[in-house]
Specification:
By secondary structure, the protein is an alpha/beta fold. The chain has a single domain, classed as Ribonuclease H-like superfamily/Ribonuclease H (Nucleotidyltransferase, domain 5, 2-Layer Sandwich), CATH 3.30.420.10. Helix content is 41%, strand content 19%. The chain is built from eight helices and five strands, in the order E-E-E-H-H-H-E-H-E-H-H-H-H. It has helices at residues 57-63, 67-70, 76-87, 97-110, 123-130, 138-144, 155-175, 181-187; strands at residues 9-17, 28-37, 40-48, 91-94, 119-122. It has a five-stranded mixed β-sheet, sandwiched between helices. Strand 2 and strand 3 (40-48) form a beta hairpin. Helix 5 packs across helix 7 (155-175) and helix 6 crosses helix 7. The radius of gyration is 16 Å and the shape is globular. The two termini are 15 Å apart. The relative contact order is 0.18.
Amino acid sequence: MNTLIENAKFVCLDTETTGLSPELGGRICEVALLSSQAQKRVASYTTLINPQVFIMPEVIAIHGITNEMVASKPVFKDIAPKIREILEGNVLICHNADFDTKFLRHEFQNIGEAMPSCIILDTLKFARMHGNFKRNRLGLIAQELGISSQGWHRAMADTIMTEKIFYYFLLKFKDMGAKTIEDLFNLQNRRCL
């Protein structure tokens, strides 16, 4: 956690799911990851995933991912090594990280593995503690910051928004004196360094 910000590799991630809770049978049906270091793209990955469960019409209405779209796609076990490769030992950034990481942990547990080890930062927590937005939903924050929210509720579009929002906060936090990943981690839970 004492890694300097400029030496850290940040991985922004978003998932689309078949429900709101893995405990109630929800599964990941799309994932996107963008990896960057010193604001330069290092890797990107996105794929639809066959969740091996039926996607209900009310869920399809949110993200537009249909059962037909995922029928021939890989299952989570097939893409887990790629996700592990990108995440392992890096700083994971999500908007509402509790949601995405709960699903990721569950998917890895389903295949008998632990989720990759990484530090987790949450742009939703940053927005609540350090923003002054009308609402803290991802697409609405993006709109207030002049970031395109086109494609909202699809994994890659949401990941791009998360990355841009993260870098907005990163610049703000550096101006406040943040130098390390630990400083960023602490800023999730308190207003100043």
